[in-house]
Amino acid sequence: MTNPLTGVRTTASRRPVSALVSLVTLCAVSLLITGCPTTSTTPPATQGGTSTVTPPATTSNIKAGLVTDVGGINDKSFNASAWDGLQRAGKELGIAVKFTESKQNADYVSNLTQYARGGYDVVFALGFRMQDALKEVAPRYPKVKFAIIDGDAPPLPNCAAYKFREEQGSYLVGALAGLMTKSNKVGFIGGEQMPLIEKFQAGYAAGVKATNPQAQVVVGYAQSFVDASKGQEIAISQMGSGADILYHASGNVGTGVIKAVAAKGTGFYAIGVDKDQDGDAPGRVLTSMVKRVDTAVFDVCKSVTTDSFKSGTVTLGLKEGGVSLSEMKYTKKDVPPAVLQKIDGLKADIIAGTVTPPTTIGP
Amino acid sequence: MNELLAAAIRQWVPLAFAATGGVVSERSGVVNIALEGMMLAGAFASVSAASATGNTLLGLLAGLLAGALVGLLHAVITQALRVPHILSGVGINLGMLGLTTYALRLYEGGGLESAATLSYPVMAAAAALAVGLTTLVLARTPLGLRLRACGENPGAARTAGVSVTRVRYGAVVASGALAGLGGVALALTTLGVFTENMTAGRGYVALAAVIFGRWNPLGAAATAFFFALGDAVQIALQTAGLGGRIPPDFLSLLPYVLTLIALGTIRSRNIAPAALGDPSV
Questions:
Q1: For labelling alongside B215, which of A275, B94, B108, B259 has CA 20 to 30 A away?
Q2: For A322-340, how does the pLDDT look when each residue is reduced to its tens digit (9 = 90+)?
């Protein structure tokens, strides 16, 4: 910058420019590092060291893309399960698959658009948080099929919504907890408090009450789906108050819950969610309420390859195999056969429609 | 009551380390919102090293070093490249979130765990020691005086023959090491697991403790304890069954609201370091 009075070039001109240059460099570097939003075809270390998802020797040229919510592909539950399903579709149906992680809610529209414009045939939106983004993107790309998991889809011929009856599976684990508790006190740990998580809580509480009317359910919310340490603290607090079986619906917060229960040892159980988490602490995770997100994703891919994609809402419950209890590989021996029979009976009742678990918590 | 206190101390330890680190950096004149990224790096490195070697001490060292390295990065960006401190902090936090998430992916099954863990009493004692030592060094030693001079009046410090750049490099690296220990305390103490973004904003809470604690290690540690106690109370209230009547979101807001009220009613001069955020070298 030249001083207009003296005509002397001042050194001050150097600073803003060099600051600007370093600023831009920093931004570029941090973007490079974060890769935000991360796009990758590297599987998040699923079945031991699979390094590629490009289908081997197939003829199908269908491409499927998946956009995660802010929980990330590595959440060991919802998103990870969806990616499992897509990878299976990649292998068995011979389609090309890819995922993109959303780091924040503002990424959803751009991430969906990126796939829609990139010539993908089917795009998955994971989580109810993406409802609005889907509403915005789907009408602009009528040739692309969109499927949202756990959320509502706009009424368009290229959109499908897959939902799960979480309250049914939660009712069964609640019934099991009610029969297995020694202290007549069990716990529920939720991530953020919202209708979807309250569905887990409502079903669970009803299940506990069905098999053990005296039992009390203590409830704790972490206001987070990532804070494992907070999950540990809530679990310690609930176990300290006498609860001996803790069911979580809280993503990675549950990692801390399972750790805390495992540390407390015999006499205490955690109940996993979304994926089969029984192996996370063998013997200490009583069962897991498995949501077959992978099956839903696989089915959609299959319908696209056979040109039979259906729009509208599909709800998967116990009947459809959309939710189920884990096989209880490590704990089955600790559960009396009469208890397992009772659970099977309740499952049959729900499927028959004689028992309808609630979806909302009472006042 | 004892359980509540124990829970509060457990949650205090990571915050105390990070807040102490924040004080050291800011008193030298370098704004440090990168505490979050430093904690995250420390958490990841500690579990990663402990899981590989089975040795918690090596895990602790790795966490400390990782934090210090991130501190060095913050020092280079703010001092050598003269990037505004806040900008560097935001970049580092985003960068560390991306980097640790990516690194976590490289582990089979997407999980990173260490069977060996540190114990809370030891880490709590270490945190108290860090707070005490930092207070002593800042208030009673020539080094502390020089560090504070760099934060109050770097021009005068330079005139007196102090290398402001060197002092700030040292302060920010030490700050990173302390925040890294905060990450170690979070991930490797009893939990023994690293999960994506597991610091969940604790670095920012620690920075708030620095500011509410008036840039004083004892004040910051006390404020951090207040936050931790508030969180422990909030969890205990939920367990006691109050969650149904009062929204849990409101309960978790409590410690912060109380701190604001306390600060608003206690009359005190603003004692932020005069040259905080100063880009000059």
A1: B94
A2: 999 999 999 999 999 999 9
Taking an 8 Å cut-off on Cβ atoms, the answer to whether B195 and A255 are in contact is yes
For the beta carbon of residue A38, count every other beta carbon within 10 angstroms: 20
B81/A22 CB distance under 8 A: yes
What is the domain extent for residue B232? 2-265
CB B185 within 8 A of CB B21: no
Residue in A25, A30, A76 closest to B111 by CB: A76
Identify the residue among A14, A20, A26 best suited for mutation to test binding to B, counting B beta carbons within 10 A and taking the highest.
A26
User: Which of B238, B245, B250, B253 to mutate to probe the A interface, most A CBs <10 Å?
Assistant: B238
Put simply, the answer to whether B101 touches A72 (Cβ < 8 Å) is: yes
Task: Give me the number of domains chain B comprises.
Answer: 1
pLDDT band at B281 (very low <50, low <70, confident <90, very high): low
Confidence label for A70 from pLDDT (cuts 50, 70 and 90): confident
What ipTM does this complex have? 0.93
A295, HSE (Cβ side, Cα atoms, 13 Å): 16
What CA–CA distance (Å, rounded) separates A170 from A191? 15
A327's CB contacts (< 8 A; 6+ apart) are A276, A278
Write down the pLDDT at residue A183. 97
Domains of chain A: 39-164+294-316 (3.40.50.2300), 166-291+331-352 (3.40.50.2300)
Distances (CA, A) of A198 to A202, A206, A247: 6, 12, 13
Q: Which residues of A touch B191 (CB under 8 A)?
A: 228-229, 232, 256, 259
Model pLDDT for residues A288-303, shown as the tens digit of each residue: 999 999 999 999 999 9
Among B102, B198, B238, select the one facing A221 at the smallest CB separation: B238
Question: Residue A136: is it exposed, middle or buried by C-beta count within 10 angstroms (0-12/13-18/19+)?
Answer: middle
Query: Of chain B residues 176-235, which have a CB less than 8 A from chain A?
Result: 186, 190-193, 195-198, 200, 231-232, 235
What is residue A5's predicted lDDT score, i.e. its pLDDT?
41
- Give the integer Cα–Cα distance in Å for A91 and A149: 21
Q: Which two tokens stand for residue A37?
A: 């939003």
